[in-house]
Structure formats: structure tokens, C-alpha cells
Amino acid sequence: MAFGDIAQGNLERFLDANRFADELCIFIHIPKTAGSSLSAELNRMRPPYHNIHRRYFHGETVTFSRIEDEIAAVIDSGALGDARSCSGHFSWDQAAPLRAARPDARAFTFLRDPVKRVISDYRYSRTPTHPTYKETIERFPTVESYIEANETQDKMARFMLPNGVRTPDQIDAFISTNYAFIGLLEMYPLSFNILSLLLGHDRMPSEHKRKTEDTADNAVEETPALREMIAATNQRDSALYELVRLKLLSVREDWRAFRQTVQPAA
């Protein structure tokens, strides 16, 4: 019962073998992958739902609580016992206490084209919506300086995978056995609908939250040279994305045929 089953290319068989109704559904929310919209949908499809997030405090500088402490607080409160879903900007490793507290937990996430995601992340980090946007603008005066920073590179892989999982074969083996589902923003209707079917619904996406605003500080021209630079500094993300893309393509025709025969539930 895992995401790797989808590679067999039979959507009906994958759904029958992997559908889960009451287990804790853990959404690892990677920044700038339409996760805010998906979290809102998850809240409706899978209550009780908990959004686990770092709190921030304004002083001379902006400080944040630790996501590990916020996860521990949810567990210690007892709220996780009855929960059916949760999400947050936490990594696979950081989510280990959630899986330990709820051994039935199933994890899923969504990815985005690595070049598009890095540019979107950079642009969002320079808007007033981001608590530390002034510091970000000062620290990274150009998109190139942002791309070159180690902490911005391979962010999807660092959220999804243990550090030792690095080669394409290792990545494929890990995601195939440890995730219930992985979707792509570039295949969002298919990805969202398959996820909803796994959760016992039949829905199409209806929300888009937190579209990044355009400001004088976050304009980016996506040139071939910029794309090459991002691809070169995010090779682990690129391998991860391509592996998931191929798996979803294996059931795309099955999904299209399925959608022609049914109407999505309200």
C-alpha cells in the first residue's frame, strides 16, 4: 500500500489497493507548491484537521517558534488522537514524532517544476506577506544570489527525503514505499482528484490561495540562463520531480477515461 503501486499503470487497481478512510493523513507542505489551497481542501475532506505551523513574534527582529516544538505541542495536547489529517511546513524527518504517535499515518505531498518553484519561492519571500521579507531583500539582492545560497537549493528533496537518500534509485525506492501519494502542480486536476479518491471522495480542485503579488522588488525574467542555473543547483529536486512525473503519466490515460464516465461529487 504505497505510491510505488501507481507505476503499474492501472489506476483502478492502485485506488483499490491504496484507498484509506480513517488513518491520519499527513500533508508535507513544501513551500510554493499550491499547498495553502490544498490544505483548505484537506480541511474539508478530512476533518478533524490540524494546521501545524511555526508562530512568529515581532521585536527588534522577527523570531519564530520551532516546528519541532509545535509538533510536540499537538501530540502532547492529545488532539492528534482523534485527528484525521494535518499539514505543515515540516520535513519527513521532522514528522517522525507524528508517525510514532499515530502508526497508522499515511504521508503525501505535492511537487512543482523545480525552476518554477524556486522562482516563486524567491518572489514570495520578497513580499510583505512574508514575515522576514525585508531581511530577505537585504540578504539576497538578486535572484542569482538567492539561487546560489545552499539553504534554497533542493528544497523539495530536503522536505521529502532523509539526507542520505540522494541518487535517483534511492529516491525512487524511498518515495515508492514511504508515501501514500505524490502529486504535481503541473498535473494538478489529475493529482488532486486521485488524492481525493484515495481519501474516499471524488472531487476536483476548487480553490487557489496565496497567489504571490507582483511588486517592484520581486520581478524576475525567466531566461534560459536562469533556468540552467536553477537546474544545475537543484539536481536532486529535478530527479525527484521527474520520477513522480513519470509515475503519474503512467495512469493519465486511465484517469481521463475515468473522468469521462463519472461526474465529480459535490
Automatic annotation (TrEMBL):
<dbReference type="GO" id="GO:0016740">
    <property type="term" value="F:transferase activity"/>
</dbReference>
<keyword id="KW-0808">Transferase</keyword>
<protein>
    <submittedName>
        <fullName>Sulfotransferase family protein</fullName>
    </submittedName>
</protein>
<dbReference type="InterPro" id="IPR053259">
    <property type="entry name" value="Golvesin-related_Golgi"/>
</dbReference>
<dbReference type="InterPro" id="IPR027417">
    <property type="entry name" value="P-loop_NTPase"/>
</dbReference>
